[in-house]
Amino acid sequence: MLDGYRILDLTDDRGHLAGLLLAQLGAEVVLCEPPGGHRTRHRGPHVDDVVDPERAIEFLVYNRGKHSLVIEDPAWIAELAAGCDAVISCGAFDVDLDALRAADPALVTASITPFGETGPKTAWAATDLTIAASSGTMSLTGDRDRAPVRIGSPQTWHNAAVDTAGAVLMALHERQTSGLGQHVDTSAQQSFVDCTQFQMMTVLTGGDVPVRLPGAVDLGGFLIPWVYECADGHVTVTFLFGPMIAPFTSRILSWACDEGFCEPDLRDKDWVDFGMAIVEGRESMDTFDRAIKALTAFVASKTKAELLERALTDNLLIAPVTTTADVLALEQLEVRDYWEHVDVPRAGGPAPVRLCGSLAKTTAGPLPVLPVAPKLGEHTELYLGDSGPAGTGITSRPRAEIAATGRSMERPLDDVKVLDFMWALAGPGATRTLADYGATVVKVESELKPDVLRGVHPFIGEEGGQENALQFHSINAGKMDLTLDLSLPEAREVVLDLVAWCDVLTESFSPKAMENWGLTYDVLREVNPELVMFSSCLMGQTGPMRLYAGFGTMAAAIAGFYPVTGWPDRIPAGPFTAYTDYISPKLGVMLILSALAERDRTGRGQHIDFAQMEGALHFLATEFADEEINGRTAGRSGNADRHMCPHSVYPAAGDDRWVAIACETDEHWGALAALLAEAAAGNAELAQALDTLSADASGGGNASSAGGLSGLNTDSRRAHAETIDAAITAWTEPREAADIEAALQACGVPAHRVSDAADLMADPQIVAREHFLSVPHAKHGHTWVENSNFELSRTPGRPLWGGPMFGEHNMEVLEGILGYDADKVAELVIAGALT
Fold first, then answer.
1. b/e per residue, 361-373, with b = 16+ CB within 10 A?
2. pLDDT tens for each residue of 219-266
3. Structure pTM?
4. Which of 25, 31, 583, 815 is the most exposed place for a label (fewest CB within 10 A)?
5. 3-state class (DSSP) for residue 797
6. Whole-number Å distance between alpha carbons of 147 and 638
7. For residues 256 and 265, is the Cβ–Cβ distance under 8 A?
8. What are phi and psi of 423, to 5 degrees?
9. CA distance linking residue 783 with residue 801, whole number of Å
């Protein structure tokens, strides 16, 4: 897809996923490393647990297919950039990106930072833990009676990396018109706010601040469990009511009733109307509680395999909570030939292991199978020789000529037209991003089967209604809405006319939906041979689980995120609800823009088969490789980290107030130890904790000075983690979270309060970058939406209006885009096609 593009990758773990996926999509990725190699080469886990920079698993999985150069002279970066299309940086190198663009106006540069390059927190020290704390996600994750937790495998940098890759592709697309590059500024904090599923906006409409619940969610007063114990582990069950979910609920209760676990009145209940019946007093919460109790007992009697088998045959919203070992054994992945067999260095020489595979399958042919990650400096001479720039034989850039004044687009995707059949979260998020940056997006839906998000909390004024849902308003901001009843042939003809108009068609139904409507890719490409069709569903268009329909809670469970999130002595808390629904749109943007780049180069369209579960596996690639190579199954460890200590969330003054603190370096720990020692003079509990730590660290001696403590290395700190945590808790517990945060940031220690919805709305960084926007809305005058996670310097984008009302743009689409006359439109109305 991206043949001919060359990317200069200046990232380490704070962005290396971007380069990996761009390489998988066909770009040439040149990885710059310091003389000792990137830090991921120097930390575990390692292949066969042999400590060796060439065996570091994290480096191996996220740097496959890249070319490694050792940078001994910073000037080499500028020389290399002159031969590249884009440069992606995360702070691993001190590089002046502005100077690179000044020297080469066609260059695209990108920066991944914790909080973005503007705003009051640009210089704050941060790690994955503190970014997660700042985003609001941790306030929603974990057990209510314990500290909030992050997802056990670091995720914030991955989210920012994929956002950045998509933004770079936008800038490259625009460059084909203008001939000019620009800069991408990505905030990891904003990227991870995506993973709150718009729950932070509840306070904007007068709602309560959401709180965390392990393996459950509070929906407007209904405590809905997601995670249930079964005979051999755990599963997720989507047990809800309303027109979209009620049929699934009735089917699982029918099965439970057949086996004697629930009463017939529960099986026969009108679950479509149940929520309204509660509100109006026609039903009581006792009925709901009885149903949950019956379901809990029933699920506990079945194994994960039994529940999944029945879910596939009876279309039930049940998903096994899979471990890394379970994922590697999934038949679906084997049938789809997902895993790639890559030789990695082992004791007896290179040997093949299974690593995460292609991001998607396409009709244009398979994506390249990337080779093993490079050895340190393996390609230095190829690109730099003894000291100079790249020589002949290196792929040239497919640059456009510098355009005449006036040819630059206002937004980078102003020339892209999208026909959008996406629904819920995982699909519409991608087309929302395209719309932000200029694409004309026509969303097709029907009042007969409304988008599920039209009925999901939070609502404007806390009042339910199909036009009041903030989630729908935000995920569909900037789109045009066309209502069509696709069961009618007249509506299908409208679709085919729109196919002839559009560049991209997107859909996120189960595979049979487009087939049933006669709208398969084979049919559509006869109308438009250059069409890019993007199909996004849980498990992909092929395989034994192809018809497995559901939500991101289920894909997150099957993809392995639940077992690594929470506490080892509690049930899997899981990430906040539908985690794969939050990351799939980012991946979708990359795939769509890559396909458009190939179409622009070759004139060929293609069909992209994107399995949301498969795409998500890249976010846990280290854990799957560790299981495959070392047989080590990833589990829950609260907020502990493989590489950092202390690394936890500590109580602050007030109800459910917490601060995340992470010492990534010995310098961080030294500064924290000095701060604790200074505070101990007025805090007897802290002084006692430090005395205990000193005694433990000195093997029982009477070393009580903080000077000795500040010299503890990571291994020593980890050996005394419990005592260190007690000392830090003694310092934080009586203090306000803001004061703790300020004191630690002042001495360079990564720290951030665990922000809840109220905190996030008041966060000066979020305010400065305008993350929450008031935009026009046809019914309400204005509504609230979330802004983009990144900024483009020359062709910025933002949402222009809130998610549309049913059929709001029918006439604009039919008359303005398709050129239908009044008689043609009247015929569609009479036929009932516009509903």
1. bbebeebeebebb
2. 767 788 999 999 999 999 999 888 878 999 999 999 999 999 999 999
3. 0.97
4. 815
5. coil
6. 9
7. no
8. -145, 165
9. 8
